[in-house]
């Protein structure tokens, strides 16, 4: 039931307090300290500052919108109050850290955290007052933005988001950009001043143009006859429901994401930069599993190369842990991923019934990891003799057909078993 009670400054303060509690939790779990190491604009802005001031802005912006529905004159004080209360809450945390030893309960409640929260070189009560005042100023900015046309406001948000994203992805972008572009956009840590301005202006324009096109699409939808408009909206809703239903079934209890590369050479080329990028933000509960074909490479040399990439990114591996903790697991499919199909031939027979079931009993296929002449070539020959893939093995199609039938606990490939055991261990952690 919707209340007709007008929005008041008390409501604004409550929402500001909720924002403050969120900011405190973010700080105490270690996100502020972790993101302080990531520069967005060199010597000016870190991701920790984006996190803190961005949260205060979001609170202020929401409060301004709600207050303006009842009284336009209340919007400014309400927004400034809400953002100020959010920052006041953080200020009190910084003061409390200086007065009481909270580390027995919250390991991240350090003097360093208090220094990160308070602006500049300030400390104590002066720093707390300055941060609270900065919060009120953020609320003022949120109020001013309500007078800006929607398209321009979307452009501003798009430009700011692009600057933050470019700063976060520096370690990923630098290896793939031409050196002249890299030197123009980035310093050793963070965007250059000029680079930040260029990125902001470019994405401001793109976001503004996209907003114009979105308005056209909405107008076209509104111009449809009522029945067609209802069908279109139903279709959008149905797609959303299907996605929401399938995702939990696909992901299971553990969430994961798979990044594939077009080739082994591409993986080996891009992996060092990717790992360095992950090292700047990866939460402590995340793990990375790298799987690659051995092909004709020396197994030990290839494994050492993968390990060196992790060491260069300062990420401990399962083979070289840091006080028992590891982030990276490097695994090699010997000789190729197709060897794993020979390790679970029942899955292959289920997908392709004409394939002989006695293939694994033949001398040349008994050890999937030592098949001479290439596992995928041997796999292709067996399937072609059974009448499949006459024009050549389509690897992705075969993988999609076989994968649903694979049972991980019966595969005889040693390289598969090593990977399986690690994944089972990670899933149980």
Summarize the structure.
This protein is mainly alpha-helical and 429 residues long.
What does this structure look like?
The chain has 429 residues and is mainly alpha-helical. It folds into four domains: 147 residues; 103 residues, no CATH class; 70 residues, no CATH class; 90 residues, no CATH class. Helix content is 63%, strand content 4%. It is built from 18 helices and four strands. A two-stranded antiparallel ribbon has the order 1-2. The protein has a two-stranded parallel sheet with strand order 3-4. Helix 12 runs parallel beside helix 13. The radius of gyration is 28 Å and the shape is elongated.
Helices and strands in order:
Layout: H1 9-28, H2 31-35, E1 39-41, E2 45-46, H3 47-70, H4 72-99, H5 111-117, H6 124-145, H7 150-168, H8 170-173, H9 179-185, H10 193-223, H11 226-251, H12 264-279, E3 288-293, H13 299-312, E4 328-333, H14 339-343, H15 345-351, H16 375-385, H17 395-402, H18 414-428
| Structural domain tally | 4
What is the beta-strand fraction?
Answer: under 5%
Let me know the number of strands.
4
Biggest sheet overview: 2 strands, antiparallel
Per DSSP, the total helix count is: 18
Distance between the termini: 44 Å
Mean pLDDT: 82
Secondary-structure element pattern, one letter each: HHEEHHHHHHHHHHEHEHHHHH
Low-confidence stretches: 232-252
Structural class: mainly alpha
Rounded radius of gyration (Å) = 28 Å
What overall form do the CA principal axes indicate?
A: elongated
Percent helix range? 55-70%
For the biggest β-sheet, the strand order reads 1-2
